[in-house]
Amino acid sequence: MKIDGVAYRTIWLAGDGWSVEIIDQTKAPHDFALARLTSLEEAAHAIRAMLVRGAPLIGATAAYGVALALRADPSDAALEQACAVLLATRPTAVNLRWALERMRRHLSALPPAERAAAAYAEAAAVADEDVVINRAIGEHGAALIRQAALRKKPGEPVNVLTHCNAGWLATVDWGTALAPIYVAFEEGIKLHVWVDETRPRNQGASLTAWELNHHGVPHTVVVDNVGGHLMQHGMVDLCIVGTDRTTATGDVCNKIGTYLKALAAHDNGVPFYVALPSPTIDWGMADGVKEIPIEERDPREVTELTGITADGRIETIRVTPAGSPAANYGFDVTPARLVTGLVTERGVCPATRDGLLGLFPERRAVA
């Protein structure tokens, strides 16, 4: 995607041929800043501190983190240590585990002297494949927006509600939930996006709005609790969200607050779609509510807010009373019964085991 006319991915190999550059998403939307990763520790910090975030991008960053580690030490012990350190950074997103298992499987069979070069090549492959997958998700999801446009009166936009940031900043490029919006927008379909602020880190208000604004897509930022009101009054034609982990039975785990949007959509007859690349599917898990580990983050993300002042200073302020404790659950699980369909790189399917296996029949032997 483009920023001020310049095409960017969210992660790429630097000009020196070995260090890795990323967009530092903790600085958005008030500053566009890049960060350089030169070690396993810096890659792990980038994931843990959310300089990078979004399940697909976390996976790609972890793959490059392994490459950085093996550049310093290509031994078996270093490979295992790198995978362990990176796996511990974020417990919910399954792409992290998927990418690390892929890297370990590919590299462990090679002689140590060949591992660093092979790690960089495999990390690049992970990133490139993510771009192809997400573009395909965009094509399949745009068909849903196209169908909604046929039901609108002439001149009326298709109103899409999304939650958190599942755009290109959450992936290597294109995004998951926003990819259908970008494709539909490029086709000339008139649309408008309701952007949930997504407290406590405000990834919708800061990142999704920033993306859409730079791309020229009409949008409006709303507080998290307004979605049900919009649906009650016929102001949402469909919802599209992303997911950090999807069970083999179609349950989806996404940013906290997604479950409430799905309930509101179900109550008001609004289609609720989840866009996901196949590495986000956890084929070994059946019950999302019981089995998916839910990350609990620093309470200061709830008690404090960071923003820009009228004179351009970035300031952090406290918004809760001193002494009041805060809980910060990062994700919730939306049961498959509330999901209208899953949008994957292979097409759209019901949120069921049979639906997923219909698109991924090669998993029947193991699912």
Structural class from helices and strands? alpha/beta
Beta percentage is 15-25%
User: Gap between N and C termini, in Å?
Assistant: 35 Å
The general outline is globular
Radius of gyration: 20 Å
Number of domains: 2
Question: How many β strands by DSSP?
Answer: 18
EC number: 5.3.1.23
Family: Belongs to the EIF-2B alpha/beta/delta subunits family. MtnA subfamily.
Binding site for substrate: 53-55, 90, 203, 254-255
Site (Transition state stabilizer): 164
Give a description of the structure.
It is a single chain. This protein has 367 residues and is of the alpha/beta class. The chain has two domains: 2-129, Up-down Bundle (Four Helix Bundle (Hemerythrin (Met), subunit A)); 143-363, Translation initiation factor eif-2b, domain 2 (Rossmann fold, 3-Layer(aba) Sandwich). The protein is 40% helix and 19% strand. The strands form five sheets. A seven-stranded mixed beta sheet has the order 8-7-6-9-12-17-18, sandwiched between helices. Strand 6, helix 6 and strand 7 form a beta-alpha-beta unit. The mean pLDDT is 96.
